[in-house]
Write a structure and sequence with these properties.
The structure is a homodimer.
Chain A lengths: L12 H10 L4 E5 L5 E5 H17 L7 E5 L4 H12 L3 E4 L6 H11 L3 E4 L4 H7 L8 E4 L3 H5 L7 E2 H6 L15 E6 L9 E5 H11 L12 E4 L11 H8 L2 E4 L6 H10 L4 E4 L1 H14 L8 E4 L6 H11 L2 E7 L6 E4 L4 H4 L3 H8 L10 E5 L14 E6 L22 E9 L5 E6 L4 E3 L2 E3 L1 H9 L4 E11 L3 E10 L7 H8 L11 E4 L13 H7 L6 H7 L1
Parallel strand pairs in A: 1-11, 3-4, 3-5, 4-8, 5-6, 6-7, 10-11, 10-12, 12-13, 13-14, 23-24
Antiparallel strand pairs in A: 1-2, 8-9, 14-15, 16-17, 17-18, 18-19, 20-21, 22-23
Helix pairs in contact in A: 1-2, 1-9, 2-3, 8-9, 10-11
Chain lengths: 547, 547
């Protein structure tokens, strides 16, 4: 027997409708790619998005068609999003930080029919236009004059389209499972794979993140969305801010410390979200300039593990609370947050730190499982490593076009590819990527934990740890160190530095000093390449045993 | 094209699963109907609910079967809820404040197969057992000894059932639209009608209420749920508290000022929700005893309009924030809340008051429409009256068994039966029930507003205003006054009291002093009966015009 409540599909066009109806005059502020600050409102964005929808319909865009955006965070970018999603087309966010070849692969794989783009990305578009046969039109976020001057034949001006279309486009009216957004994972192995969000998944993710213990945004917040819209939907902020009528500030192309600090202060920002690098730049800038943070209360930091120094600086020097979060493109993205429990809040700040350094606990709707390679559940003792698997209404069930095949286990969980622990308070901590974890005698050793400690050695510039084949233990850790300019070091020095900070059996079997530790496109250490370089490397311990 | 996210039905069993996994040890505290405080945890409730589910399965309860509860707020009541809902049966909450005839009607209409009941309600059950043919079993929230002593042949002990069944019942696995709960409206006209909630509607309502600007509950909250579970799902608290791991305190049968104050203080409650009467009793008790509120931060008040005196007393004397809310059984129930916008927060407290006295704004997912009788939208000027209509994923689409027929308008909105205004800031205010509003010369006059002011006259004990037929204006207001013991009054005195407080054309055409103003079962003025009594009443103004 079914309940008798109304049939009200959870489609994201209703989020912007709600904002236009109840938060009409609330501001959306953008540092435009041209430089000046521009201001609009949720009501203004709604009207312009409706006009753009009519333009897309005029171009024959059908439900399910992919329309891409190649743009920084801006009010215009939000307008394009809702214009696309509102009519049932799929908004494909392109990551401009990828190499041109990867971008072309992704655009062709998605068969994007239209690309909305910032003028910033004209060089890529001019150079690669011929390689993108599915793309019928390119719409620049620009006025007619800028577009004419762009040097891209056939390019259209978004402002002209908005001026020449009516705001009467009809949104919604389709099934809530309708595809809504497409975002490719960066793909450290193999080709990038597309995560195809539905209206339902985005809507539920929005409500979930709005809980007090998650993002907890309020109509009283002014939010600086540093995390890009092409990075897993700006962690949902372009949905959650209009949902509650938060004032939204968009940084455009400028994410350096000075630019971010200026926006935080002049726009009286109360909440922000970004990866650690952004905050490192901000904190460095503020130390140099003796800057202050007069309105900021809370920052959510994710994308990679948050260093203790960032948490301390925000807390001690600026009175800002850091919430450490974990998620991925496949989880929409919010998976867990380090929001303290009452027991943890009651501790002195220093004793809270071990929990703040973890990625935290999941909200309702995100199920976590920790298993060994055989699929057996691991204990929640904060010690046992396991593969982290997740299930929920905003977790990917498969990739676009079936790439990657069946990605769920027999219980419907998605394997994140991360290795983690969960402690008795429920705090999860990512300890490694599954492909980087070192399997020694049936136990797992975290390559990341060792290299993070080693990188803290005063002489080290970078450190990397990989597993190297070992006749008895299967694998043993090898530490690679790139020393700072002019420094010299010894293996004993580094092993001594690690001594007492990691378990005895985690101690690397060898230390190699290298001139170069390769980094991938996203700035992370490219361990795949390092493993290739050190394939067949003979550890002293392995040699010893052979003799 | 559909998105490719996981299929994860929104069923409420997952809420308690989540609580048991991540908030296992968080307390649920009950003032038992026997008197003593009893303590359990979300983990404990989960396990006992699973055992009870097995008992229900053993009794042959099938998906869709109705199982009723006749009980005060308690941990045991929550266990029964999830035991019923988890296996796809329908939890039918009975309101013990109804008359026996109404209760029997509702139980028979719902065809309840089992009733869970507090021993408090044995008199009703013993007396009416024979009138409830669909009821196969009655399970008392009691141990074996109490049950044996209850004097109700065949009654079962919930504790015995829990002791004798395993905790391995399988929950969920059904469509999220599956019926989950049933609650009858009090039905001032005609028979009570059943609202049949779905798992989906309850789950989405839960997430919606958890937003910061709605209930905003956190793992750091201790919640006193005074509002009964039979009163529109305790406004969702028995879902939202386990969802976030809030500590929950249940008052059992005692809702007097002293009992509520004791729980607030001894259990260190931070958040509570109840109707105005409960708070009036609490505030009166605290004034008498010079009591304090040391932990309470926020109360949500709804069910009827909140008097200014309550808001002021909480704010001025105890530093507690009052959030005025509106909703109904048909809206799950949260419809709107008076959470201030930044513009209102910036005002001095006295200037905020007009907004605090309104029922407020809707969260995402609740659409409001204000129309005249012809269905035309009314302006949002804070002046124009309109019928309040609502649409959303947790609003009723029809009543159980089709009672009441088609209840949605052509746009899918449910007519709340309330008359309201919406001002330019979006704050909605209920001004009357649609059937009580007075239609004078094509304009609407609020009967409630006039009678509330008149009731404030020092000589008045009660006041009521109804519309009386008028040859020129269709209807004109008639004021009925019941004077305090020993008082005498004149029409001129009361009209003079109203002068300047209401619009000239709202001024009642006559004042009648009566010995009795009839009240209905829920304590509200029975205007239907008054209208019957005054049918054909000739207003002086009508007579004058006839001459």
């Amino acid at each position: 027997m079914h309940g008798l409540m109304q049939d009200w599909p959870l489609t994201v066009d209703k989020i912007l409708d709600h904002a236009a109806t109840w938060h009409h005059g609330r501001e959306v502020v953008t540092r435009s790619v041209e430089g000046p600050i521009v201001r609009t409102t949720w009501g203004g964005i709604h009207e312009r998005a409706k006009r753009l929808s009519n333009a897309l319909l005029g171009f024959g865009i059908q439900p399910g068609d992919r329309v891409a955006t190649l743009a920084w965070n801006s009010g215009r970018h939000i307008e394009a999003w809702y214009a696309i999603m509102g009519i049932g087309a799929v908004c494909h966010t392109l990551n401009p930080r990828l190499f041109a070849d990867q971008l072309c692969y992704i655009i062709n794989h998605a068969q994007d029919r239209i690309i909305f783009a910032d003028v910033t990305f004209l060089p890529f578009l001019v150079e690669n236009r011929e390689r993108l046969p599915s793309v019928e039109r390119i719409i620049l976020f620009a006025d007619a004059d800028q577009t004419a001057a762009a040097g891209l034949p056939g390019a259209l001006s978004s402002e002209t389209l908005i001026d020449t279309h009516a705001a009467d486009a009809v949104w919604g009216g389709f099934d809530e499972k309708t595809a809504c957004g497409l975002c490719y994972t960066s793909g450290t192995t193999g080709n990038p794979k597309g995560v195809l969000y539905s209206h339902r998944s985005n809507f539920i993710h929005t409500l979930s993140t709005l809980q007090s213990d998650v993002m907890g945004l309020s109509i009283n917040d002014t939010v600086l969305a540093v995390v890009p819209m092409f990075h897993a939907n700006a962690w949902g902020l372009t949905f959650s801010c209009p949902a509650v009528g938060a004032r939204l500030v968009m940084p455009g192309a400028k994410m350096d410390g000075a630019s971010i600090h200026e926006l935080l202060e002049t726009e009286k920002v109360t909440f922000s979200a970004a990866v650690p690098t952004v905050w490192q730049m901000l904190l460095a800038h503020m130390r140099e300039t003796k800057g202050t943070l007069t309105t900021l209360k809370r920052v959510v930091i994710g994308g990679s593990a948050v260093p203790e120094a960032i948490i301390r600086a925000f807390h001690d020097d600026y009175g800002v609370e850091v919430v450490h979060a974990w998620g991925m493109t496949e989880t929409s993205p919010l998976g867990t947050l380090s929001t303290p429990t009452p027991e943890i809040s009651a501790l002195p700040f220093d004793d809270q730190m071990p929990f703040k350094l973890k990625q935290g606990r999941p909200p309702l709707g995100m199920q976590l499982k920790l298993t060994d390679d055989a699929g057996n559940p691991q204990p929640r003792d904060g010690m046992a490593f396991g593969r982290l698997k997740v299930r929920g209404p905003y977790v990917a069930g498969s990739y676009f076009k079936g790439d990657g095949g069946e990605i769920l286990d027999e219980e419907g969980y998605f394997d994140t590819g991360d290795v983690a622990t969960i402690d008795h308070t429920g705090f999860m901590q990512i300890t490694d990527r599954a492909k980087d974890v070192i399997k020694s005698g049936g136990e797992w050793i975290s390559s990341i934990e060792i290299e993070n400690i080693a990188a803290g050695h005063p002489k080290a510039l970078l450190a990397a740890v990989i597993g190297v084949t070992h006749p008895k233990w299967d694998e043993r850790p090898l530490l690679l160190v790139k020393l700072k300019e002019g420094e010299t070091g010894t293996a004993a020095e580094f092993l001594g530095f690690l001594d007492g900070k990691i378990a005895k059996w985690w101690m690397p079997d060898d230390v190699v000093f290298v001139d170069d530790i390769p980094l991938g496109a996203t700035g992370k250490i490219d361990k795949k390449l390092i493993r290739q370089r050190f394939e067949g490397y003979l550890l002293p311990s392995a040699t010893a045993r052979r003799i």
